[in-house]
Specification:
This protein is mostly beta strands. It is globular. The chain has strands at residues 4-7, 10-13, 18-24, 33-39, 46-51, 58-60, 68-73, 78-83, 92-99, 109-112, 116-121.
Amino acid sequence: QVQLVESGGGLVQAGGSLRLACAASGRTFSSYAMGWFRQAPGKEREFRAAINWSGGNTYYADSVKGRFTISRDNAKNTLYLQMNSLKPEDTAVYYCAAGTVVAGTVGAYDFWGQGTQVTVSS
């Protein structure tokens, strides 16, 4: 089992950047595939990016390709999401998740953090 805690959210102007972090507890972080999702009010939780256990393979939703970068530091048990060129439509609560396979679906992940709010003003 792994516990996840996100940080780094906040208020930023359109065009700005934020770096989210997800700190994981436990010694098994490096064995998990990890993902970032977002959820806006009244909407479904939506895939943003995923990374395999080693960090060697990454996957992105089309809407964030070229703007967001997912990475991980297994020595620090931490997952990151660098978000550049932010848009007002990126506004949502962002969640990190851990699972056994890299996937773009909510159901593929077993453990979730509590989320961090990202607000992009126009």
